[in-house]
Each structure stands twice: as structure tokens, then as C-alpha cells.
Amino acid sequence: MAIMETDPATINRRTATTGDLGTLQQDFVVKTRDYKQQYAHLYFTRLVRMRQMVLTQAKLKWDSLDPEAKHVEKILDVQQGEISYLVGTIYMEMKLKPNILDDITKDHWVAAQPDRPKYTDDTDSVYLEDESGRVKLTGVKITNDVFVTGVVMGVLGSEDLNGDFKVVDICYAGQGPQEHHAFMETDEEDKHIALISGLGIGGNDFKPLELDLLSEFLTGEIGGVKEQTNCANIVRVVIAGNSIVTPPPTEDDSKAKKYGYDRSTFVTAPTLIFDSFLQEVCSSVDVDLMPGESDPSSVTIPQQPIHPALLPKTRQYSTFHSVTNPYWGSVDHVTLLGGSGQTIDDIYKYVNSDNRLEMAVKTVGWRHMAPTAPDTLWCYPFMNIDPFIMNKAPHIYFVGNQDKFATELVAGADGQRTRVVMLPSFSSTGTIALVNLRTLECKTVSFSTTKAEN
Predict the structure, then answer these.
(1) pTM of the entire structure?
(2) What residues does the DNA polymerase delta subunit OB-fold domain cover (predicted)?
(3) Which of 64, 161, 307, 399 lies 20 to 30 Å from 346, alpha-carbon distance?
């Protein structure tokens, strides 16, 4: 960064308007907690709401075939040897996938298996199911593609002698409708959104000096006039989870046990540091704070907003917004959708590939950001809604706390454009992303206190 320059001209931060997305964001807020219902309701709701979306794409793709392909409404009504297409929910039969029924039937003295980075195995099978039943899917198309439990999909093929459905083509819901966005060439006065994840305050990789540099960058207190002008174009900051890493409570066996709150067993420093950081940033720009896996929030998704009482300095600012994970937002008519990484981390376990950007792009085509919930990703048992369905195609879709930065502009069949951004952990890489609200171009800014780096 350049040395601070003095300039008589005042540099003012640009402003942006925020929009109300109604039920898109409100559906992530769990107003009453009721765990009496079964998770089957969520699968049923997902299939009911997405069946017509997939069926529309299937008819466009397959109704003009010769010979004619027939749509069979119920999977169990498929006739052997008849070319037809079905719509249902994918179920992956994977012997390495955790199964709660297996766990409770085993001997309680058997040690639990360690967490696996992948559930994949050569014996895995793909099934399609609906209200009537399920059928096993076979064929080259099934072997060569990526499938995860919970995705609503259409398949074209026929039933073979073994009772399996041999697939020759597949289709998904595709990107949802999107508000028109005028894409133009980059201009010096373009507004940007700063996307950050994995501050990791209190963790082993935490570097206080890099956090200070980030704070000064976002508030425009670093660099020369040019850098400060660029910082003034940042109209919103989104922090996508894992901001705090609190060490586990330590217990001293030599001391007498205390019941209730024991100040000596908890470390408050990470929260205090984070509060001070947010206070500085919120004094200059609007901040949307999402919880993550390591933050003080609910374990199940959608994670509820971090309680403002934990951030006494920051909560006094009107520019501070504690939001859910996942989160919908709107800035200058540009819609954002993002999460803190749990959804892609879970999908990663279902596939052989290590390309997380590809997985995120596929969720856009599936029109569902968390298909593996509730199978292997913990979530709230919703009854009549599935808030993870992408009823609209966002202009910016980000995933936090990934191993490295990656981005791709995804184009839809009806002119939709979605900028997919994989955000790396700031504590590990010192990197944040800036997205141009007018062009959807994305670039990174890196901070380092290591002498070996520039």
C-alpha cells in the first residue's frame, strides 16, 4: 500500500439503495421452533414446488423427439421398454454415508467412525423417487455426471428387464427468473460490494495486523488518493461467517467444580476483538454479518442472526445488520444470495471431484442451494416451505470459507447472468473479493504482513 497522501479535496463514500426481497429473506428466519414434524415434509414440499419447474424444461427438451417420449407422472407407472420421462428427487445409496438408523442399532460400545472427507465408493447407486416409490437409474449418462441426494431432476429413458430405468438424457429446473440488469463497461465511478469470509479471530491462523489492514482499507484510511477513492466506491460489506474461533473451554481438575457460568473456562477476547473491528468498519460503511459454523449461532441451517448483545459497540450503529446464513440481499437492484460454506462443504462429500466452483455452479442449475439438507446437512424441519429453493436467479451468488478463490459468470437460457464467487478464508489467505455492481466483474484484494510477499 502507498503512503498516505494529503489532499484538500474531501472523498465521500458513495451511497446505494437497498431493496426488500420479501419472503425470499424472511423464509430463512425461523420464527417459532417446533421439532415435532418429520423431515419427510421438507422433501415432499421440495418435490411439489419444483416438479413443475423441471417438467417445463423437460417438455421443452423432449416433447419434440421422434419417436415421441411420454411423460409418466408416477415412477411406479413406468412401462418396460417404453420411452418416457420422469420427474423426481434423487436419492444416493452410499454405504459410507452416515446413517442414523445404523448408528442406533449398533452396539453402543463400538467406537464411532471418524468423519470422512468423502462418502463416495464404487458401489454407490443413484435412485429417483416420488410419492409412489423409487427406481434405480443406470446408463452412461448416470455414470458420467454428478448427483447428490435431494436434487429434483427429470430423466429420459426406459425401464429395462431388471426393473431399472436406463437413462439417456437428464434435465434440471435451470436458473430461475431474474430482474433485468444492464451490463456495461467498467467505469471509475462503479460501485462495489466487498465479500469477506473466515476472519478466524482467535484461531491458529489469525493475524491481527492483517485484520487491522483490512479495517483501514474498508474505512479508507490507507493508501493514497487513488486507493481512498477506490475504497469510497465500496457501498456494502458482507461478512460470510466463521468470524470468531473460540477455543474450547479448559477445565482444571485440581479446582473444585463450579455449576453455571464460570468466567475462567471461557475466552472472550475473540468476541471483543471482533466487536472493535466491526465498530470501526460500521462507522464508515454498511455491514451485513452472517453467522458461520464456528460463530455463536444455531447449528442447523438456516443459521439465525448473531445476537447483537454479543457486540455491544457495534450494535449502536444503524449501518450494522445481523442477518441469517444463507442470506438474500438487494443493493441498487442487484440481488445477492450467499452462504457461509456449509452447503458446498456437504455436497463436496458426495462427489469425486475437488472442484468446488463447479459444485456451486451446479446448484444454480439445480435451482437449489442446499439439496443435501436434511439428509446429511443439518437443517430446520420446515413444513410447508423449502427456503433453499432459488425462486429467483441472483445476480451475485457467493460461498464463503472455501479453500481458494474462484469465480465464474453463469449464463442462463433466458438471458440470466449470475456471478458465482468462491470466497477463501481471510485468516488463511488474507484475501477478500470485490464485485462490481454494474458489470458483475470480480477482483480480489490481498493483505499480507509477511516480508517475503509484496
Answers:
(1) 0.89
(2) 38-170
(3) 307
CA atoms within 13 A on the CB side of 109: 0
3-state SS class at 288 = strand
Q: What is the per-residue pLDDT across 133-146, written as a single tens digit (0 to 9) for each?
A: 999 999 999 988 88
> Contact at 8 Å (CB) between 135 and 165?
yes
Nearest to 149 by CA among 338, 377, 401, 339: 377
Q: Give ∠ CA 170-172-176 in degrees, rounded to 5.
A: 160
Question: Contacts for 278-281 with beta carbons within 8 Å, 24 or more apart?
Answer: 278/311, 278/313, 278/314, 278/320, 279/313, 279/314, 279/317, 280/215, 280/219, 281/215, 281/218, 281/219, 281/237
Q: Are 238 and 336 in contact (CB under 8 A)?
A: yes
Separation of first and last alpha carbons in the chain: 9
pLDDT, mean of residues 435-440: 93
Q: Which domains does the chain have, with CATH numbers?
A: 23-32+183-248+265-446 (3.60.21.50), 40-108+115-171 (2.40.50.430)
What average pLDDT does the structure give for the chain?
87
DSSP 357-376: HHHHHHHHHHTBS-TTTTTT
pLDDT in tens, 296-333: 998 899 999 999 999 999 999 999 999 999 999 999 98
Q: Residue 75 in 3-state DSSP? A: helix
Burial of residue 420 (CB within 10 Å: 0-12, 13-18, 19+) is: buried
Mean pLDDT of 145-156: 94
C-alpha cell of residue 146: 454428478
With beta carbons less than 8 A apart as the criterion, state whether 137 and 169 touch: no
**Using an 8 Å Cβ cutoff, are 448 and 431 in contact?**
no
- What the block records as the C-alpha cell of 139 is 446408463
Could you tell me if 132 and 122 are in contact, meaning their C-beta atoms sit under 8 angstroms apart?
A: no
Q: Could you tell me which of 157, 161, 87, 167 has the C-alpha nearest to residue 125?
A: 167
Nearest to 165 by CA among 78, 87, 62, 61: 78
Q: Given this model, what pLDDT does residue 253 score?
A: 55
Residue 276: alpha-carbon gap to chain centroid: 27
Three-state DSSP at 42 gives helix
* Cβ neighbours, 10 Å, residue 106: 10
